[in-house]
Every structure is written in structure tokens, then in C-alpha cells.
Amino acid sequence: MSSNRKSEKNPKFGHLPLSTSGPQETSLTGNALLRTPYFNKGSAFTKEERETFKLHGLLPTNIQTLDEQVKRAYAQYSSRPNNLAKNTFMTSLKEQNEVLYYKLILDHLKEMFPVIYTPTEGDAIADYSKLFRRPEGCFLNIGDADRVEDDINQWGNPEDIDLIVVSDGEQILGIGDQGVGAILISVAKLVIYTLCAGIHPSRTLPVVLDCGTDNEKLLGDDLYLGQPRKRVRGEEYDAFIDKFVTACRKRYPRAYLHFEDFGLNNARRILDKYTPQIACFNDDVQGTGCVTLAAIMAAFKVSGTKWDEARFVMFGSGSAGTGIADQIKDAISQHTDKSKEEAGQQIWCVDKPGLLLKGKKGQLTPAQIPYARDDKDWESKEHGDLLSVIKEVKPHVLIGTSTKSGAFTEDVVREMAKHVDRPVIFPLSNPTRLHEAKPQDLYDWTDGKVLVATGSPFDPVKHDGKEYDISECNNSVTFPGIGLGAVLSRTRLMTSAMLVAAVQALASEAPIVKETGSGLLPDVEDVREISVKIARNVIKKAVEQELAQEKDIPRNDADLEEWIREQMWNAEYRPLKLIEEHNADAHARGEAGIASGQREARFEH
């Protein structure tokens, strides 16, 4: 949008606190303004702004557009020798000018996504202590648990924070325990929220819980910035988590809490504990499940498979596998009259020992136990390998989260295709070298009948003269929209019904459903508009379940979508309005998103 249009308030929703129409107020001038990333426009400050905000002499004379700045920044980015250097360049740019940072990414989204997020962000996290320049985010130390509340409080007043992403760093992006470096995954996740759903970047808080590390390389590194001690577990760990959640709830009672990259033994357990208490989400458990479920819904619309008859085999039953199973179980229950327990009987989970059985309860995680089958039902049947299970179950859907490369063999796939007309097969393990099967093989082995989604990007495949797009189950088309709906509705909880509603919105946007292509999921380049649809469904369900705390939420879809869009942050320069310091809130004083020792003093007077 142009600056002229932005100077006018949205006639319907411009009065909202998160409105993106009209000018931004600030009390800053001169260098203080240039040093504030969410106000700084660099060479794009207008002639009038340079006069009003005392910027003459601080900037080169020529006034440039945002597009011209993006062109220059992209040339600088492109000159960096490798992806890690590009990632570091982007971090530096973000610290100088947030609008330019996000606009550059949005203009080159597919190219830059792997650089600012996985897999390159994993390299940056692994080298966090070596690359460290300046801190970003909130660092909470289990050795100083008594300070948690004070440390959380300094990030703002109750109305200043909408979204908190927290990690304890035990299981980062497939590279394991990275200790305090996990602050970067919290930061990166919040960048995705802003890019994909317009969450206001200055109203978010990235947190790392430094509980030690079991990474021997880090423990032996003199430059390591975290606690050089073995990871704390048990009662002390649980008490620390509880102090953190309690402090967040007390200080920011309407903020949405996102758990990220916790260890296998903690992720699900922590989520289950706090889901009935606060609006929270775990992307590793729920996000993967949601995007996979959306692809299944799209596939079923094509295949005609009925939810009350569908049979599912999960190959790999860790946090991702059981998380997907949970989402499928919720969907079956909502599409049929079955209880969740009955719905779970349509899902068979396979892990390293073979089919999960109740007799192996001592070897099962809490998340696996609900899916364990009765031993007596399998006494005379082979169940120690995937092919045997496929022969017995005859599934409509086969999903892989095993990290076992090539596990979906030709025999397995052909056996499955014998029994169903349109087999749905999702090899989701990351990275690409760990995929259970290659899409081209799946098409060849099923004579083109397969419906495929993968965990990593793949080029289109050709079979029998036709070309088929391969959809990536990318969580980034799902969790940002869910978060946007939670933030704007101020929902008290995030329920399974809200997640299914989100999934339905995503599935309805699939090219194969809209008959605009063969993909089971929409492209990440369309993600902001997809996030609007997902947020709409989440908000409507929050209102229906009487969980929404926001007032005057529009009831009809057209108004609700405009209401959502008006509150989504955009990567564009808005006019600035100079105000007196005594009239300025924390954001106007340049204190949003950073700890400020002066904030509390000001508000006490």
C-alpha cells in the first residue's frame, strides 16, 4: 500500500490496537530513531520526516524507495560466499531495519526460506557461541530459577506481548542438544510468524530455558555461552518449567505460548500438562500433525475415502508420529460419531520393535500407549516388520516419520496398492537423504495412482506423460495462521476442535481440491492469505466454544477476514508522527521488544 493510503484509518477497523492503518507515533528523533529497528527507514525517510525528526546530516541526501533498498540489500546478500554467511548478513539487517529485512525475504521467499530457517538456521545454532555478536531474546537459567519472574517482567507490560516462543534446546532441527543456542530457534520461529501471518515483530518474545546440555562438544568448548553443566532433569526441571509458565501467565495473561524443540521425553508431557490451563501449542507435536492432516483431507476429497472406514499406518512413532496420529484421531472423531478411543482403533503405529503392542508397555512412551494394540489379536500374525503389518491392515494411508531411508520398499508399496484404489503415502522424514521413499518411485510402483506429500522439497515428477507436483508438508503454512487466530481472538485455550478447524481451512486451499494443480497442499508463497483463512476458522471456533476474550469480533466471514487483515503487520513503511515523550508508550519510545530498565521507573511515576 502507498503511504497516502496508510495515512488514513481503516473506516471499519482502524481503531483497533493492532491496526496497521494510519501513522505510527514515536517520541524519538535523530540517532535514537535510526537505532530503533522497527522505526528506522534508512535512506527511505521522506523530506518531511528528515525535517521533523532532525535527521539532516545523519543520512545521505538521496531519498530512496523501499524497493530500491531491497534491490541493494539483495545484491549484498547475494555476494555472501555461503548460506551461513547469508544467514549472518540477514541477522545483521534485522537488527538495523525490520521492514527492509522482512520485505527482502518476502520478495525472495522460496530462495531465502532455507537460509533464514531450516536447514541453515541449524548451522547458525550449532555455531551460536562462536558467531555471537549481541544478545537477542530472553535467557532464563535453571540455576537462577528464583529470578524468572523478574526476568520475564522486564520485557514489557501486560498488553505489550502477544506471542512467546520458548525452547530448552534439547532436540533442535534434527541436530540434537544445542543448549543455549536454542535462542535462535525461538527467534527464527517468530520470524516465520511475522512473515507468514503478520504477527507484529515488536510484540513477540523469544525465550531460551538454559537447563544445561548433554552435548559434549559444547561442554568442552571454552567459548560456550550457556551453563557448562549436564542437562538438569526430574523435579528441578519440572519446577523450572512451571515457574516460567506461571510467570508468563501472570505478566502477559493474554499471550499465546509456543513450545519448540523440547526433548522427546518432555515435549508431549509438558504440552499435555499446560493445554488445559493456557493457550499453548507445540509445533513438533501439533504443527506436523496439522499440516499432514490437511494433506490427508485433500487426498480423501480426491480418493473418496470415508473417514469412518479409513485405515492408517504410522511408521515411526516418536513425537512427530504420535502427534500426527493424535490429529488424525481428532479428525476421525469429528467426522464421525466415534469417540476418540474408538477413532484410535483405525490407526496402527509401528516403531523399531515393530507394531506397538500393549505387552511392551514398559518400552512405550506415554504418547505411544494409547495406540498399542492387544497382543492376543496378533498372536498368530506377523508384525515385526512394516510389510507384514501392511499385509494385515491393508491401509489407505501410510505415513513415515522414521528417519529410515528407503523403508517404503517396492514390495511394501505394491502390497498397499493391491488393496486400495488411491494409496496415500507420505514419506516425511527429514532431511531428504532420510526419506522413506522417493516420489518418483512411488508413482512408478503404483502406476501413477499414489497421492504423495513429503517432508522436504522435491521437484515435480513425471509418469506416463503427465507431470505431478509434490507437496511439502511444511509446518510454516499451518502454525502461523493458528497463532494469528489465537492472538487476535485472545483465546483462553487452544483446543483440538480449533486445530481441526484450522486444518479444514488449509485443506480447502489445496490445488488438487481447487482443481488448479496436483498438489495436496498450497504453496508457501501464498501463505499470508492462507493464514487469514486459518485464523478465521480458529477465531470462529474460539467464539463458538466461548474461549475468545476479545470483544466485538465480526460474525460474518467477509468482515472477519477484513478484521484479521487490518491487524496483520506488513513489511512497508508507515508515516511517523512525532509526539511528546510524556504521551509515549513503550513502543513509541523504542522500547518494545527489548529489555528496558527505564520502563518500570517511568510507569511507576
TrEMBL record:
<dbReference type="InterPro" id="IPR012302">
    <property type="entry name" value="Malic_NAD-bd"/>
</dbReference>
<dbReference type="Pfam" id="PF03949">
    <property type="entry name" value="Malic_M"/>
</dbReference>
<feature type="domain" description="Malic enzyme N-terminal">
    <location>
        <begin position="94"/>
        <end position="275"/>
    </location>
</feature>
<feature type="compositionally biased region" description="Polar residues">
    <location>
        <begin position="18"/>
        <end position="30"/>
    </location>
</feature>
<feature type="binding site">
    <location>
        <position position="430"/>
    </location>
    <ligand>
        <name>(S)-malate</name>
    </ligand>
</feature>
<feature type="region of interest" description="Disordered">
    <location>
        <begin position="1"/>
        <end position="32"/>
    </location>
</feature>
<feature type="active site" description="Proton donor">
    <location>
        <position position="117"/>
    </location>
</feature>
<dbReference type="InterPro" id="IPR046346">
    <property type="entry name" value="Aminoacid_DH-like_N_sf"/>
</dbReference>
<dbReference type="InterPro" id="IPR012301">
    <property type="entry name" value="Malic_N_dom"/>
</dbReference>
<dbReference type="InterPro" id="IPR037062">
    <property type="entry name" value="Malic_N_dom_sf"/>
</dbReference>
<feature type="binding site">
    <location>
        <position position="260"/>
    </location>
    <ligand>
        <name>a divalent metal cation</name>
    </ligand>
</feature>
<dbReference type="GO" id="GO:0004471">
    <property type="term" value="F:malate dehydrogenase (decarboxylating) (NAD+) activity"/>
</dbReference>
<feature type="binding site">
    <location>
        <position position="261"/>
    </location>
    <ligand>
        <name>a divalent metal cation</name>
    </ligand>
</feature>
<protein>
    <recommendedName>
        <fullName>Malic enzyme</fullName>
    </recommendedName>
</protein>
<feature type="active site" description="Proton acceptor">
    <location>
        <position position="189"/>
    </location>
</feature>
<dbReference type="GO" id="GO:0005739">
    <property type="term" value="C:mitochondrion"/>
</dbReference>
<feature type="binding site">
    <location>
        <position position="284"/>
    </location>
    <ligand>
        <name>a divalent metal cation</name>
    </ligand>
</feature>
<keyword id="KW-0520">NAD</keyword>
<dbReference type="GO" id="GO:0046872">
    <property type="term" value="F:metal ion binding"/>
</dbReference>
<feature type="compositionally biased region" description="Basic and acidic residues">
    <location>
        <begin position="1"/>
        <end position="11"/>
    </location>
</feature>
<dbReference type="GO" id="GO:0005829">
    <property type="term" value="C:cytosol"/>
</dbReference>
<dbReference type="GO" id="GO:0006108">
    <property type="term" value="P:malate metabolic process"/>
</dbReference>
<dbReference type="GO" id="GO:0051287">
    <property type="term" value="F:NAD binding"/>
</dbReference>
<dbReference type="InterPro" id="IPR015884">
    <property type="entry name" value="Malic_enzyme_CS"/>
</dbReference>
<comment type="similarity">
    <text>Belongs to the malic enzymes family.</text>
</comment>
<dbReference type="InterPro" id="IPR036291">
    <property type="entry name" value="NAD(P)-bd_dom_sf"/>
</dbReference>
<keyword id="KW-0560">Oxidoreductase</keyword>
<dbReference type="Pfam" id="PF00390">
    <property type="entry name" value="malic"/>
</dbReference>
<feature type="domain" description="Malic enzyme NAD-binding">
    <location>
        <begin position="285"/>
        <end position="543"/>
    </location>
</feature>
<feature type="binding site">
    <location>
        <position position="474"/>
    </location>
    <ligand>
        <name>(S)-malate</name>
    </ligand>
</feature>
<dbReference type="InterPro" id="IPR001891">
    <property type="entry name" value="Malic_OxRdtase"/>
</dbReference>
<keyword id="KW-0479">Metal-binding</keyword>
